[in-house]
Specification:
By secondary structure, the protein is mainly β. It has one domain. The protein is built from two helices and 33 strands. The longest helix is centred in the N-terminal third of the chain and has 15 residues.
Length: 359
């Protein structure tokens, strides 16, 4: 009986990430294997495998490279929403704050990344001709940029970026046919006192995001649909008028100085956009450091003002932002394990709550 109790404690400790050695679960169909570090786990995977990352700080020697179809599922990054457990955070070994990034190389088509806090996400290498499709980046926090391409020869398309908190910006590097929705997106400095939220995308759909860069919203977009976004930027089109043949519909702009579509170049069109929407009168909490703050106030004109009759911003659309950004797989909300058995030594009090969700 005591052996059974000890085994139970160890199993529960591994699940809820009590102080113990981290274990990385690699699943291939019905086959499951455990590894002591993430880099070894990735090297042992085959295309189509899933790696479950535990909560806590995961140290790696350098940025992680993925060159095969792989699903990486963390415990989540918002500690307020994962039952007080540790978030899954990737860091460079020996660094106290430097997050590790992830590089998807050619061969990683169909990969998934969800439930992690990390640095930048990059598709491709500067030394390769990059062909990458159908990668999904979902419910992560990136403290850097998301860059859809590297080098001079890129064939990047059908990339899905949804429900993330991107502290930096999205640089498409001329990627096409991408879907960018329900994200909180910051900006990156590109020189000449210019900061941008989203740039270098073709024929893509950008909808139900909150873009909080105060300088420029977009640069070098072509034939994109831009709908139901809340845009803080002073300027929509970049200083070089590089946004062309795009359709802007049902967006809300915080700036009162935007003249739309007259302020854009003549190739762009748009309808039903809202101007001069003050952030303090739009969101329940006027603070862009967390997506959970950005629920639309009932009295705001942005309420139910999207193209589909739902709210403008991240809580609108067919797949609204899920508060807490918890991954879709079953996860632990609460975990308590007593340090002592009962007087008979045969029972141990364990209280664990696990939630599953549709998406």
């Amino acid at each position: 009986m005591k052996k059974r109790i000890i085994f139970l404690v160890l199993a529960v400790c591994a699940i809820i990430n009590l102080p113990a050695q981290q274990q990385f679960n690699v699943q291939n169909g019905t086959k499951t294997e455990f590894y002591d570090d993430l880099e070894t786990a990735i090297s042992k995977t085959a295309a189509g495998d899933t790696i479950y990352l535990p909560g806590g700080i995961i140290e790696v020697s350098s940025n992680i490279t993925i060159n095969k179809q792989l699903a990486m599922i963390g415990a989540g990054w918002d500690t307020d929403s994962i039952g007080g457990l540790n978030k899954t955070e990737l860091r460079i070994k020996g660094a106290t704050t430097a997050n590790a990034g992830i590089i998807f190389r050619t061969g990683s088509d169909g990969s998934l990344l969800t439930g992690c806090e990390l640095g930048s996400i990059t598709l491709g290498l500067n030394t390769e001709s990059n062909t990458i499709q159908n990668v999904t980046i979902w419910r992560n926090k990136t403290n850097g940029n998301v860059v859809l391409g590297a080098g001079t020869t890129n064939n990047i398309k059908n990339i899905f970026i949804k429900e993330n908190y991107i502290v930096g910006a999205i640089d498409g590097q001329l990627a096409s046919d991408c879907w960018i929705n329900n994200n909180l997106i910051g900006c990156t400095y590109i020189g000449n006192n210019v900061s941008i939220s989203i740039q270098n995308l073709n024929n893509s759909y950008i909808y139900n995001n909150v873009l909080y860069c105060s300088n420029y919203a977009f640069k070098s977009l072509k034939e994109c649909f831009i709908e139901n976004n809340f845009i803080v930027a002073t300027y929509v089109n970049s200083y070089d008028n590089s946004v062309n043949n795009c359709s802007f519909n049902n967006n809300a702009f915080a700036s009162s100085g935007i003249s739309f579509p007259n302020g854009m170049n003549g190739t762009n069109t748009g309808t039903d956009n809202l101007i001069n929407q003050e952030t303090v009168k739009t969101f329940q909490v006027n603070d862009f450091t967390s997506p959970k703050n950005l629920v639309i106030l009932d009295e705001s004109p942005c309420k139910k003002a999207g193209t589909d009759g739902t709210d403008i911003g991240i809580y609108g659309g067919n797949t609204p932002y899920k508060a807490g950004a918890v991954p879709f797989n079953p996860h632990i909300n609460k975990a308590f394990v007593s340090l002592r058995t009962d007087d008979g030594g045969s029972k141990l009090k364990v209280d664990i709550t696990v939630s599953a969700q549709d998406r």
